[in-house]
Amino acid sequence: MDHLDLLVISQAKKWAAESRSLWLCTVLTTYGSAPRSPGAMLVALPNGENRGSLSGGCIEEDFLERLTNGELEPINQIIRYGDGGLPSGKSLPCGGVLDILVEHFAGGPEVLSHFAILEKGLLGSYSCRRVVLLKGLVRQVERCRSDGPRIDQQGDRVFIRLGAVRRLIVAGMSPVAEYCASFAIALGYEVIICEPREEYLKNFSLPNVQLVAQLPALYISEFGCHESTAVVALTHDPKFDDLTMIEAVRTKAFYIGAMGSAKSSVKRKERLKRLGGLGDDDLSRIQAPIGLNLDSKTPAEIALAVMADIVRTANGVGRNDL
User: Could you tell me which residue ranges the XdhC- CoxI domain spans (predicted)?
Assistant: First the structure.
């Protein structure tokens, strides 16, 4: 799941705690070209204040105008944008068609509980799905498997699966780490950089990145990694990289990698086997040298190769399929 999903649900939870009436929009289906994929969300107050996105901006503008003008019926409903959609004839610049699930929440303890459960799911505690009954105000959350379709519809019931947001844990600050963080934010990842050396953080100012003044291995040992987490060690410093690898292989992280040449990577795996007690199965989970072979030279190119390999793995594409 996109990190923006977590920001939307957290905002909805905050407004629900204040007993405020709110609207939640979710992209259900797209036809043709569309700027956001199914599952994208936006939450809004009746005055137009909002968080999230459904498109490149055109859909949001129209929806918020209808909302503030009081044109929307306060029930669970599907609104279509594009060909065959709203009477206004609102079309998308890209020529696509979007079906949007629109829900009204009146506020109260039940609403707060609903969003609190969803927030825990996005934080990796469990996988769940929302079950929304159209033409009314009935909805519920139930546990589910982590796989399966993101969106499903059976008659008047809409099912929306939610799971842990994509997360990148970066072990130690470096020029490559900064570019990785920047690329990961653009890709919708939650980014955590673990760096206990204060002098390495003085000039770092990338927004939406969580800085943790702690050894990465200790952070991973304390908080773990859910199945949507990628862990990368990019410092060439064994006390960062080796210890991070030892802790990371004990988690559900889907991607674990360490930067270094082929020769240094062989030596690292020998150390991890000898000193860290890692077996062959553990070592096979570590991508070292890290990233796709793009003949990268600069920090930005190396970071691009790293993030490309993470995306490849997340999408289930084998190296031999490239």
Answer: 15-67
Helix, strand or coil for residue 5? Answer: helix
Q: Which residues pair with residue 30 across a beta bridge?
A: 98
Is the pTM higher than 0.90? The answer reads no
Give the angle subtended at the CA of 290 by the CAs of 227 and 163, to the nearest 5°.
Answer: 15
Report residue 309 as tokens: 């390999």
The separation between CA 299 and the C-alpha centre of its own chain, rounded to angstroms, equals 24
Are the beta carbons of 30 and 37 closer than 8 angstroms? Answer: yes
**Which residue matches tokens 């934010």?**
185
CA pair distance 102, 84, nearest whole angstrom = 18
Strand partners, 209: 191
* DSSP one-letter code for 247: H
Instruction: Give the pair of three-digit tokens for residue 116.
Output: 């609190």
3-state SS class at 307: helix
- Give the start-end residues of each E strand in 254-314: 255-258, 286-287
Sign of the four-CA dihedral 109, 40, 84, 71: positive
Phi, psi dihedral angles at 294 (to 5 degrees): -110, 10
Per-residue pLDDT for the chain (322 aa), expressed as one digit of tens each?
788 899 999 999 999 999 999 999 999 988 766 667 889 999 999 999 999 988 867 788 889 999 999 999 999 999 988 765 555 445 555 566 889 999 999 978 999 999 999 999 999 888 899 999 999 899 999 988 877 789 999 999 999 999 899 999 999 999 999 999 999 999 989 999 999 988 888 878 888 899 999 999 999 999 999 999 999 999 888 878 999 999 999 999 999 999 988 899 999 999 999 888 999 999 999 999 999 999 999 999 999 999 999 999 998 888 777 6
Is residue 29 within 8 A of residue 151, CB to CB? The reply is yes
Question: C-alpha dihedral over 41, 46, 51, 57, to 10 degrees?
Answer: 70
